[in-house]
Amino acid sequence: MQLLFEDLKEKLKKKNINLSYQRLKVLEYLTQVRTHPTVDQIFTDLQKDISTLSKTTVYNTLRVLVQAGLVRVITIEDNETRYDIDVRDHGHFKCESCGKIYDFNIDMNSLIVKDLNNFKIDDKNVYFKGICPQCL
Amino acid sequence: MQLLFEDLKEKLKKKNINLSYQRLKVLEYLTQVRTHPTVDQIFTDLQKDISTLSKTTVYNTLRVLVQAGLVRVITIEDNETRYDIDVRDHGHFKCESCGKIYDFNIDMNSLIVKDLNNFKIDDKNVYFKGICPQCL
DNA sequence: TACATTATTGTACTTAGTACAAATTATAAT
DNA sequence: ATTATAATTTGTACTAAGTACAATAATGTA
Ligand SMILES: [Mn+2]
Ligand SMILES: [Mn+2]
Ligand SMILES: [Zn+2]
Ligand SMILES: [Zn+2]
């Protein structure tokens, strides 16, 4: 636990992000809670530990982490922005019954599109919707 | 033009959607303006013709059209929901410089994911981000 | 045409996210 | 360690997307 915290400090330092307790806590939360949480979930849970926490700080911190490439944004539903500590290429499946978001492996390099020959592609996203096994 | 309008009437009737001038106009707009417009763009443009148009009506109409499968929702950026009259399988590329959204062909059936064997998949989405040729 | 049903409109409301200035905390220099 | 400087956090006010709802208008049917 103490060890993890030191690892996260390293992670931020390597990206030239100044250390703060709030930033470490948000990063720790995303490392432990792998459900692609929303800002509100992060805020509500962390507020139990940090009673003075402001939601603006959560927004600010996430923006910083995303810009540094430590966290990615998941946009599946327009009304709920979610955050993912796993920045490696992978797809997302959202169950329309329970709302849970599952990760799946997909080879983004195999998604070669001839229509986009002269386009500079920076980011590839794949997401599916349907019903998960538990809800079926 | 008159012919097109009759076609759209047919399209709605086939889906058991009651006819109204507003619904026809929204459908006509999406048929003609293929830029994946937002609610606000649709509303602002149609208001020039229909001065009494309410934004609520645009929201209601789009919900009806999406439920009927005549229109699909495009969620790339969390703050801008866009609408597409082309409901066939295809991918979207958003230029991060000019904001334009391009269509591209992609074979969704080739996206077979072994991690999702027991999942019921209803909807597959692929979108890329980057810079378009005009902006490069 | 008359009636019943459905759609439109306008307003009020909710919620996600942003702007900004004051207060606090972290970093660097002495 | 103390101080000065810079960066971050916090709280409030604000914006904008979207929804709820009741009154009004339009549409479909007998
Ligand atoms: Mn993920
Ligand atoms: Mn399209
Ligand atoms: Zn489920
Ligand atoms: Zn462009």
Number of strands of chain A: 5
Proper CATH architecture of the largest domain in chain A: Orthogonal Bundle
The CATH class of the largest domain in chain A turns out to be: Mainly Alpha
How many structurally independent domains of chain A? 2
| Small molecules in complex | manganese (II) ion, zinc ion
Low-confidence stretches of chain A: none
Backbone CA Rg of chain A: 17 Å
Fill in the CATH topology of the largest domain in chain A: Arc Repressor Mutant, subunit A
The oligomeric state is homodimer
- Largest beta sheet of chain A: what is the strand line-up? 4-3-5
Name given to the CATH homologous superfamily of the largest domain in chain A: Winged helix-like DNA-binding domain superfamily/Winged helix DNA-binding domain
Fold and architecture overview:
The structure is a homodimer of 136-residue chains. Chain A has a three-stranded mixed beta sheet, with no helix packed on it. In chain A, strands 1-2 form a two-stranded antiparallel ribbon. Chain A has four helices and five strands. Chain A starts with a helix and ends in a 5-residue tail after the last strand. By secondary structure, chain A is an alpha+beta fold. Chain A folds into two domains: 80 residues, Winged helix-like DNA-binding domain superfamily/Winged helix DNA-binding domain (Arc Repressor Mutant, subunit A), CATH 1.10.10.10; 40 residues, no CATH class. At the A-B interface, strand 1, strand 4 and strand 5 of A face strand 1, strand 4 and strand 5 of B. Strand 5 of chain A pairs antiparallel with strand 5 of chain B. The structure holds manganese (II) ion (MN) (2 copies) and zinc ion (2 copies). One zinc ion (ZN) binds next to loops of chain B. The structure holds a DNA duplex (30 and 30 nucleotides).
